[in-house]
Amino acid sequence: MDWVLFGKFCSTFIAFAIPLVLVAYGGMFSEHSGIINIALEAVMIIGAMVGALVCSGFDSAVSSGFPSQLAMFISILSAGLGGAVFSLLLSFASIHLKADQTIAGIALNTIAPALFIISIWAIQGEAQTNIFLPSWRRISLSMLGLSSSSLTPFANSLLTYSLNYLTTIIALFLIPLCAIILYKTSFGLRLRACGEHPQAADSVGINVYKMRYAGVTIGGFLAGVGGMAYLLVVSSSFDGQVAGYGFLALAVMIFGNWRPGRIILAALFFSLFTTISNMTGVISWLPTFGSINEGAKLYNLLPYIVTIIVLIFTSKRSQAPKAEGIPYDVSKRS
Amino acid sequence: MDDKILAPSLKEDNFWSKMRKAPWFISFSSSIFSIILGLIAGLILLMVINPARAFPAFGLLFIGGFSGTHSIAQFIYLAPPILMTGLSVAFAFKTGLFNIGTPGQFLAGIFMSLVGAIMWNCPWYVNILLAMLGGAIWGFIPGFCKAFFNVNEVLSAIMLNWIAIILVDVGISNMPAMIDSVYSTRTVNIVNVNASAIIPGWGLENFDSGLNISIFIAIIIAVICWLLINKTNFGFELKACGSNKSASKYAGISDKRNIILSFVIAGALAGIGGAMKYLAPTATSGYSLQISSLPEEGFTGISVGLLAASNPIGCIFSALFISYLDVSGEAIQQLRYAPENVSFIIGIIVYFASFVALVKTWLSKVYQKDLFKWLGDIFVKLFKWLCIKFKNIRHCCTLKINKMKNKNEKTSSGGNSTASEVKDDEKEEDK
C-alpha cells in the first residue's frame, strides 16, 4: 500500500471536512434560533477576506520576530469577527425589519463578492483581484518538535500535506464546544426554543430577538472561521470565491438533520467525494473515461449529484426547526 | 363656467385617492424606495473609497449608458437575457417557489441553442425552441424533486447549477466542431458558421450593428406571462398554490402538478434568455469554457424578479434599469472605480427589497395620512399655479416682443425717433 498517498488522501479528506462542519454548524446555530441563513457563502467570503487581509498585514511583523502562529490566531479570530459582523446585516433585516430571509440572504450573496473586489481595490490598489497569503501560515513539523525522519511515511504525509494549519486545531476545540453549547446548556435550550416555538419561549420570559441575534452572530463567527479554514486548505491566495462551499454546507446541515453529530457524519461523507474529485490526477486506479475529452472533470460532479440523491432520500422526514423563516411577531401569540 | 374649472380638480383628487390604495402603485413605490436607498448606499460607498471622484462617478452611473449609440445598443443587448431570467424567477415566485436555478437553466439554454446553431445548422427560431427545451428539462428536475420528495428547491437548484456548468464544459469539449480554431477555450463565432442562427434585426441593425429583435421578443413573452398569471385558470391555480398550499389542495388543485409545471415554465424562460445572449450579432467571442463561475445573468435575474415584486410587466422595467446600471458600471471604470460597485449597489437594492412587506405597510399607511393628501393637493395646486404663471409669463413676453417690434418699426421709419421714444417711456412709467 502506498502510505504516502494514503496519508495525503486522509489529510485532504479531513481538511475538506473541517470547514464544512464549521460552516454547517454556523447554519445550524442560525436555523435553530429560527432564521434561515442562506448567506453562509457570503459570510465565508467576508470572513476569509478579513482573515487574509489581517494575515498578510502581519507579514512584516512576523519577519521581524513576531510569533507566526500567534499572528495566525489573531487573523483567524478576526475572520470569525468579520463573519459575525457581516451576518448582523442578515439578522437586523430578518429580526427587526421582518424581511424575507431567503431574499435578504441572496442579496448578501450578491454583495459579498462585490464588496471583496471593492475593498481589495481600495486597500491593495487598483485592478487587484487576489490577496496573497504569506508562507509562514503553515505549522511546520519542527515547531511541534518533530522531524520528518522520526515519523512513519503515513504520519509524515498526513501532517505535512493539508492538516498543518492552526484552523485545524481551533476547529477541533470549536466543534465539540458548539455541540455542548447547543445541547447541554440553558442558553442552547433557549436558542432552540426560539426556533421551534418563539411565542412559547417569549411567554416564559426569553427575549426572542436577543436569542435570534445571538444565533445568527455565533453562526456568522463559525462561518467566518470556516471560510478561513477553507481558504488555507484550498490555495495560497484568495480571489473572493468559495466555489459554492457555503451552499454545500447548507446541504450538509439539512442532510445532518440539524443535529451536531449527524452533521459531522454528513460532512465526512461529502468530504470523501470532494476529495476523490480533487485527487483524480493522483489516484491511479480510478477509471479515467478514456474516450471522453476532459473526462476527469466528470469527477467534479460527484459531490453535487450525491447531494441531490441524498436529499431525495432524506428530505421526507426532515426535522427542521418549525419556526424557521417566519419573522417573530409578538402580536401573533396564540 | 365654474363647473369647467371645478371638474378637473375633483377628478385629480379622485385619481390620487384611487392611486394611493392601488396595490401596484404601493409595490411600485416600494421598489422605487429601495432603488433610492440602494443608490444612496452606493454613493456613500463611492465617497468612502474616494471623496473627490465620487460625485462624477455617481453622475456617470446615470448618464453613462447614453454616452453613444454603441453603449445604448449594449444596454439593449444586455436587457433581454436578464429580463428572461427575471421572468423565470418571478414566475416561480408566484407559486411560492424560489428559483435560484436560473444560472443552470440559462446554461442549459446556451448549450442547446449552440448545439442547434453550430452542429445541426438550425435557423434562429428553432434554436430558441431548443433552448426552451433545455431550460425546461433543467427546471423539471428541482420541480420534480420538490413535488415528490419534498427536497428544498433552493439546494437542489444550486447543485444543478454546478452540475450544468460541468456538463456543458465537458459536452462542448467533446464536440470538436463547436470549438474555435484559434482559442481552444471558446466556441466558434456563429456568424461565420451559420448566419441564419443569429436572431435578425429587421432593420434595427441600421442604427447599430449590435441591435436585434430579441428585446421585442422578450417584452412580448413578459406580456404573455402577465396574461398567463393574471387572466387564466392555470395562473390562478399557480397563485393559489403559492399563497396557501393546503387550502388549494382542499379546493382540488393538484399542488404537485403545479409545482412541476411552474418550474418547467420558469426553466424554459431562463433557457430562452441563454439563447438570446449567444445568438446575437454582438456575441462574436462565443461562449467561453470556464468551470469556475456561473453565468451572472442568472443571479442578476433574481435581482430583476425581486425588484419587480415578481410582476412580469415590472420585470421589463427592472431589467432595463439593471442592464442600464451594468453598462454604466463599465463607464465608471474611467474614473478608476471597480465595476463591482454596480453589483454592490444592485445587491443593496435587493437587500432593501427583501423587507418589502414592511415597506409596503409603511407606505400604505403614509399614503393614507392627511399629510400626504395635503402634499398631493399641494402638487396639484402647484402645477396649476405654474401653468397660470407660465401663461402670464408667456403673455408678458409676447407683449414685450410686440413692443420691441413697434419700437423697431418706429426707429426705422422716423428721423426724430429719439424724442418720441423718450416720451413713450415716460408715458408708460406714468401709467
Features:
heterodimer; A: 334 residues; ABC transporter involved in vitamin B12 uptake, BtuC; two-stranded antiparallel sheet; 13 helices; B: 431 residues; mainly alpha; 0% strand
Summarize, please.
By secondary structure, chain A is mostly helical. Chain A has helices at residues 3-32, 40-57, 59-63, 68-96, 101-124, 153-160, 166-184, 186-196, 198-203, 208-234, 245-255, 260-278, 301-314; strands at 131-132, 237-238.
Main sheet of chain B, how many strands, which sense, barrel? none
Question: DSSP helix count of chain A?
Answer: 13
Share in β-strands of chain A? under 5%
Count of discrete domains of chain B: 2
CATH topology of chain A: ABC transporter involved in vitamin B12 uptake, BtuC
Could you explain the architecture of this structure?
The complex is a heterodimer of chains A (334) and B (431). With 334 residues, chain A is an all-alpha fold. Chain A has a single domain (11-133, 154-329), classed as ABC transporter involved in vitamin B12 uptake, BtuC. Chain A has 13 helices and two strands, in the order H-H-H-H-H-E-H-H-H-H-H-E-H-H-H. Chain A has a two-stranded antiparallel ribbon. Chain A is globular. Chain A starts with a helix and ends in a 20-residue tail after the last helix. The mean pLDDT of chain A is 85. Chain B is globular. The model of chain B is unreliable at 6-12, 417-423 and 425-429 (pLDDT under 50). Chain B has two domains: 70-334, ABC transporter involved in vitamin B12 uptake, BtuC (Orthogonal Bundle); 372-430. Chain B starts with a helix and ends with a helix. By secondary structure, chain B is an all-alpha fold. In chain B, helix 4 crosses helix 13, helix 5 (102-119) packs parallel to helix 7 (153-173) and helix 9 packs across helix 10. The chains are: A mainly alpha (334), B mainly alpha (431). At the A-B interface, helix 5, helix 11 and helix 13 of A face helix 2, helix 6, helix 7, helix 13 and helix 15 of B.
